[in-house]
Amino acid sequence: MGHKRATLADVARRAGLSKTAASMVLNGREGTRLSAEAHQRVFAAAEELGYRPNVAARSLRTRKTATIAFVSDIVATTRFAGDLIRGALDAAREHDHVLLIAETQGDVAFEQYAIDAMLDRQVDGVIYAAMATRRLTVPPALLAGPVVLLNATSPEGLPCVLPDDERAGRTAAGALLDKGHRDRIAIIGRNRLKETDPEVSLAAGARLRGIHDALDEAGTSVHREVSCPDWLPEHGYAAMRTLLRRPDRPTAVVCMNDRLAFGAYQALADAGLSVPQDVSVVSFDDDPIAAWLRPGLSTVALPHETMGRRAVELLLDGRAAGPTVVPMSLRRRRSIASPA
């Protein structure tokens, strides 16, 4: 048969039954009219031919099962995940659909099993999600039916939903410029791998471009940049200490995410300096802890709930192509003031 996809007709032919009878057996709708042996022949034929009911051939509009698969790497156990999933759940419910959620933890074998199980349940489409905004390799099984990538892109150029990280970079820098910071704005969190490898991150390079563009347009540039091996609090702490050892310490810092900012706050406190009187701080993500920091951290929020909702809407609409970019808005708190 080569690589041609097995059809229901192929299965029926091999089992020696009509297409209708084979369909009823496979869909569990056949009464007792066929013998157990005939049932076995149908299932054996389907197995041998690698037959899978064609999800793509059915229009989403027919909504045969009203279920959507939500497959992710590590979304469900992370603090932002709740928002991605909540947005998707809300939109699914509004459209009378149910979400089947599987988390793979990056285990390829389990991912294959989960995807097969979901496709066998005749889902109307799949949302394939990533925790960190990055380029993914989409499992081949998903390419046959409707799929929307959430917080990710793919080499195939599938429909995807992404946060607008470049505009977010402009927003963060603009918040400092608006308060009169100009010549001593530093960046904490440069990272070559995150900035150059799309499979690691799409956010880092985009945020950086936005920051630089906003400063260029204001006729200024970044005063100093500190690289960090990762975007964790301890790296933000070390980077801030590095900046404070210089005689011309910055009046403001842009941290590439909130966790770096937590560490930067700690380093400033240890040095007897205060936010924002001595140094203003702005960052990205709106991690739940950002509002709890004292003073509250001004940060450009990841719109995860809106993104989850958009992914479901695009999947059910069925006409999406290329990226859908969702704006990120500034959560204004008390970490930015005019330079002393």
TrEMBL record:
SMART domains to which the protein is assigned, alphabetical: HTH_LACI
GO molecular function: DNA-binding transcription factor activity; transcription cis-regulatory region binding
All residue ranges annotated as the HTH lacI-type domain in the record: 6-62
Keyword set includes Transcription regulation: yes
SUPFAM superfamilies xrefs: lambda repressor-like DNA-binding domains, Periplasmic binding protein-like I
Gene3D superfamilies in UniProt: 3.40.50.2300, lambda repressor-like DNA-binding domains
InterPro entries named in the record: HTH_LacI (IPR000843), LacI/GalR-like_sensor (IPR046335), Lambda_DNA-bd_dom_sf (IPR010982), Peripla_BP_I (IPR028082)
Keywords: DNA-binding, Repressor, Transcription, Transcription regulation
Protein name: Alanine racemase
Organism of provenance: Phytohabitans houttuyneae
Lineage summary: Bacteria, Bacillati, Actinomycetota, Actinomycetes, Micromonosporales
